[in-house]
Each structure stands twice: as C-alpha cells, then as structure tokens.
Fold:
Amino acid sequence: EAGVTQFPSHSVIEKGQTVTLRCDPISGHDNLYWYRRVMGKEIKFLLHFVKESKQDESGMPNNRFLAERTGGTYSTLKVQPAELEDSGVYFCASSPGTGSYEQYFGPGTRLTVT
Amino acid sequence: EDQVTQSPEALRLQEGESSSLNCSYTVSGLRGLFWYRQDPGKGPEFLFTLYSAGEEKEKERLKATLTKKESFLHITAPKPEDSATYLCAALHNAGNMLTFGGGTRLMVKP
Structure:
C-alpha cells in the first residue's frame, strides 16, 4: 500500500511569490490533514478535510493560505504571497474514516522563503 | 489550552542501555495519545496509539504506557538503529487535530 506522498520535497521561493504544495493521501482515506513545523517549534496543526469538505481550519495562520481538496482525493496548499515566516516543513497526513484515529504522515515539503 | 511536553529534549545511550522517554500532557478530554518516530528529513512514522490509562503497547524494543497525566516510551536494550526523534501527540476528544510535543532526540552509540 502506497503511503502519503507530497510534492515538491523542497521549494525555495522569494518573498511575495506564490507556492503550491500538493499532498496525495493513502488511497481510500477520507481524512486529510495539513501540519507544519517552523524552525525550532513543535509540529502544529493547520487544517483537516473530510473528503472534500473543510472540517476544521482553526490552525490556518492567515488568509494568505488556501487549502483545497477537490473531489476528495489529493489536496493542495497554496501560500500567496509568501512571507519569510512561512518557511518551515509542511506535512500532510491522512487517516481512514470514522472510528480510526491513526494519522499517517507524508515526508513533508521543506519551504524556504528568502 | 492543550499542552504536550516531552523530556528529555535529547538522550544519549550506549547500545544495550535501557531508558524511558516521558510525555506529559494537559488536555481537557483526551481521546488518544500517539507516539511517532521521525528520522532526519522524513515525516513522522506512526508507532502506537494509547486510549486509556493503564494501557500498554509493545513493538520490538519499544513499549508505550499511559497514565492519566503522562505517557512513557520505554526502550529496552536499544540499538544504534533506534536513533531518531520520538514524538508524542495528543488527540483531543473534540476534533481530530493532534497536539505535538517538541520531541526527544535519541542517540544510541555502539
């Protein structure tokens, strides 16, 4: 069974530019999560999709971040315009439907904003 | 506010020297306590979920236990390949987000 995949693995952009991160969850997993770790801090929750619907976006830092999950399959996280403080590692995770809480993480995308 | 604290931040062990990692949590309504292993440049790898105080789970040289305030990850006779960062995370019973601790970086020397 393929795991959670993320693309790209690393992105370097300039302040003010736009970046789109992609996550492909484990096949059949209805729940998809985005987390991020900024330098020296804990991994923090950003948002949670159930299929194509946003269940919880309480962790999104501001309106420069836009997440989508069209069709309930892969998800994208767009940062526009990027700021220096957006640098960090963005992780995606997925879990099956109701009753199973284990979240399986992808390898992450390291975003560097210069 | 939910909080998860791990100690120590770093731990150096000799191969075969058993020890324990601590994860203390203050969560109003814990649904589950998760342990992950993370290697450099990779995502967290799921190890265990514990749901109730007194529960224990084992996998090879690792055993996780849970009380009402903390969880321990016991490592018995570690090997160099056990070197990694170990993360614990709490799942609140209202919602599906994980609250992570800062991790313990374990280094096992041959």
The interface with chain B takes residues 4, 31, 33, 35, 41-45, 48, 55-56, 58-59, 91, 93, 95, 101-108 of chain A (CB under 8 Å). The first strand of chain A starts at residue 5 and ends at 7.
